Amino acid sequence: MVSTAHKQNRSADLRERTFRRLLVWLDQGVDTNGQSYLVIRGRLLGYFDRKNCLHADELADETLNRVARRLEEEGGNIETEIPAKYCYIVARFVFMEHLRANEKEIAALDNVSRQANVMSNEDRDRKEKMLECLDHCAAKLDSSQRDLIFGYYVGEQRVKIENRRSLAQTLGITVNALSIRACRVRDKLESCVKECAGRQ
Amino acid sequence: MSNSTNQNQVSTQYLLGTLPEVERERLDELSVTSQEFADSLSASEKDLIDSYVQGELSGSTLAQFESHYLASQIRRERVEFAAAFQVFAKKQAVFDGSSIRRQAELDRKRKGGWLSRLSVFGGQYPALQWGVAVAAVVFIAAGGFLLLQNARLRQQMSIEQAHRDELQQRELQLQKELDQQRASNTAIEQELAQVREERARMEEELKKSGQFPASGTGMLSFVLTPQLRGAGQTKSVSIPANTSRVTVQLSLEPNDYQTFAVVLLDQSSHQELWRSGKLKASSRGDNRTLNVGFSAGLLKPQVYALQVSGISANGQSEVLSDYPFKVVK
């Protein structure tokens, strides 16, 4: 479900009606309770991040703002293969505009990357905090999810591969399906930890 | 190569920014529009991050990961989470033991082996079955540890043995060198004693005759080469009247002896006039020479020969060459 806080933040850019229209359009007739919106926003965030944009989340929001405005103009529907395709086309324009306007960002990004491997006391504290949050968040998972990710991600190299094969066999699913399932649980855990660590 | 492996490799290249532009744009689109690709990319990304955290990346992949992937704050946070997650997952595996239970369960189902035969206990005595499973794991782990330990000890023993052999070899070599040194010392001592004896005798003779050699003129030196069979002219040596001592350098023919003895013979009577102690040859390049010295008083105008013998390690001697010379006054 899309959180109330998130909706409030979005209200500066989108009015309630426009935002609801966007959610309905993204759902394509199936009420996902805002999941479709979160999924497409996550993918757009990933897209901008892989393009090394410093503020990928802002660009993802800008993309969805433009889509929502266009949707308003078109009376609630845009002719496209799938909503995600249209979102991608808009995202490309947003990226190119951003690129022209923010060429200096690349240099700044280089400096940030050089600092990436230096482990400060602050980093250590954050890691400690993360471990505490992991404990807390893992406890919130149900036992099958816990067994799944700790079974899936445990071990190194060949041991890990063999482990995954065995686990998939036990669950009667393909390794590919297992990886997607484990990946989603890990995403869930990661979000929980991020939120928990941010609170502390 | 399987499809999924290939796809995983492409995804990894995409994440590391090493794909060509056209391919990158195609995957950019898929990452937003295709649920399947987005899921697969997310799984590949987690595996890539875990590999980095576990130190499995190397070479250009590692370099690209650090220069490209870690350039983003969001991705660095993912790496940070992965590091914490790995630590946490390992702890879970150790303390929870769920993976061991799952593995035992898997083995039981898959192989239907010896453990499955204990299924008579399975339903009624699960604790007993788990006990057996845990004992088996402990037994296998202990066995593995002992095997490893055994291999390590064997390796250590062979290293020690090689070291001991080397020391023994060195000891033998040193002993041999010491023996040679001792033999050489003995020969020198003998020669020295002989020289002293001869000098004393000479001084006695000089005392009797009331003559003393003039300083700087009492010694005569010359070089002799071995006599060739059936040919050659005997070397003539003129000995001045005031000569008290004669030293001769004998050029040796090639041989394997280390120790030699020289005898001064009267060629006509074959009488032995003088005998050296054990001598060592001097080397200059491939040539070896012997230096001998004796009283000039032993020589009259006639033909002599210096006969060189080689002395083996067991003391046996063999005549090697004659060095004839004719004294003229």
Describe this structure in words.
The complex is a heterodimer of chains A (200) and B (329). The radius of gyration of chain A is 20 Å and the shape is globular. Chain A has helices at 4-11, 16-27, 35-50, 56-73, 83-101, 105-114, 121-140, 143-152, 157-171, 175-199. Chain A is built from ten helices and no strands. The two termini of chain A are 23 Å apart. Chain A is an all-alpha fold. Chain A folds into two domains: 4-114, no CATH class; 121-199. Chain B has eight helices and ten strands. The termini of chain B are far apart. Mean pLDDT of chain B is 78; it is low at 110-124 and 211-216. Chains A and B meet through α3, α5, α6, α7 and α8 of A and α1, α2, α3, α5 and α6 of B.
- The tally of strands of chain B reads 10
Oligomer: heterodimer
How do the SSEs of chain A run, as a string of H and E? Answer: HHHHHHHHHH
Average per-residue pLDDT of chain A, rounded, comes to 82
Stretches of chain A where pLDDT is under 50 for at least 5 consecutive residues are none
Number of helices of chain A: 10
Cα Rg of chain B = 47 Å
Tell me the number of structural domains of chain B.
3
Assigned CATH superfamily of the largest domain in chain B: Immunoglobulins
Give the C-level CATH assignment of the largest domain in chain B.
Mainly Beta
Q: First CA to last CA of chain A: what distance? A: 23 Å
In the CATH hierarchy, the third-tier topology of the largest domain in chain B is known as: Immunoglobulin-like
Tally the beta strands of chain A: 0
First-to-last CA distance of chain B: 104 Å
Globally, the shape of chain B reads elongated
Listing every helix as H and every strand as E from the N terminus to the C terminus, the arrangement of chain B reads HHHHHHHHEEEEEEEEEE
Q: Determine the mean pLDDT of chain B.
A: 78
Number of helices of chain B: 8
Overall shape of chain A: globular
Largest sheet features of chain A: none
